[in-house]
């Protein structure tokens, strides 16, 4: 059975729609007032006043986007005056109904409710005064319609506010993701450069050849870091700017991490098990960053000489262990916060996985991550 996509149904809106609606209502109101003309098409003062009120109310509707509250009160009062001077039930009530909906949709719920209350009160007063065209049923129906209109406008405002909040949340999550990327890239590169520079200064006079190797490693590491930094910052480019051509890092580049750690004095090996298969981009990037952060911490804080990276490719998850033979501790950064492990944990949680980090049973420090896909 065919189903109509109700979620995609949208009413026409905009200044042109307001102008078209006002024109249609004005024509219908004019036709309705034509019933009050005499046999010789003579218009009484009452008919002229009704026409002028209808024209003023319809002309005010296209201005509601600039002055929503002022136009709302004007059309409500003008429509009430029209029905007091006219003896026909014209369609002019459509104008204040549209104005009330627009107010509620913009979040002016109190103003819309106050105008609706004024309209119901006026009609109710007419019913109590014994007006022939107004009775209790009409008052009840008008109140129901106005409540429904204001409620629909409030729902529209709520949906728009929810969409805006969701967009802000997505933007915040993206900023956090970029912050983690920058932390990983800059932290890893600068740590390796610091270690190599310290080694070069220490060996400059005793062993110039090893010092030259350290400086070469610094050059290569800084080049690699700059490349990753450009790729990470590429997500902040404008739409009309050239997109970055460097692919996001993944486990295919784990050899670069191992080489960088070895140059820093950490003997690193990779052990693979399971059936390697292409990983989703998010899982591949997260695994790379976790290995990168773990090796960086091992070089900076643990005093380790050896590290092992174990990768097990399962059917539905990637198991990742990074173990070193250091002192089993991890210090924080200069502010005492230590965002490295927290960042790795957030990466794993963002994918529905888990991560634990702490001293190993046989000493050293172990990072264990499980990344489902």
Helix-strand blueprint:
Layout: H1 15-33, H2 45-60, H3 68-85, H4 94-105, H5 109-128, H6 136-203, H7 208-233, H8 254-263, E1 267-274, H9 281-302, E2 306-313, E3 317-324, H10 339-350, E4 354-359, E5 365-372
Parallel strand pairs: 1-2
Antiparallel strand pairs: 2-3, 3-5, 4-5
Please provide a written account of the structure:
This protein is of the alpha+beta class and 373 residues long. It is built from 10 helices and 5 strands.
Strand order of the largest sheet: 1-2-3-5-4
Shape: rod-shaped
Structural class comes to: alpha+beta
Strand elements, count: 5
Which runs of at least 5 residues are low in confidence (pLDDT < 50)?
A: 1-9, 331-338
- Give the distance, in angstroms, between the N- and C-terminal Cα atoms: 35 Å
* Helical content (DSSP H or I, runs of 4+): 55-70%
Number of H/I helices: 10
Which key terms come to mind for this protein?
single chain, 373 residues, alpha+beta, disordered N terminus
What would a concise description of this structure say?
With 373 residues, the protein is α+β, with helices and mostly antiparallel strands. The protein has helices at residues 15-33, 45-60, 68-85, 94-105, 109-128, 136-203, 208-233, 254-263, 281-302, 339-350; strands spanning 267-274, 306-313, 317-324, 354-359, 365-372. A five-stranded mixed β-sheet has the order 1-2-3-5-4, covered by helices on one side.
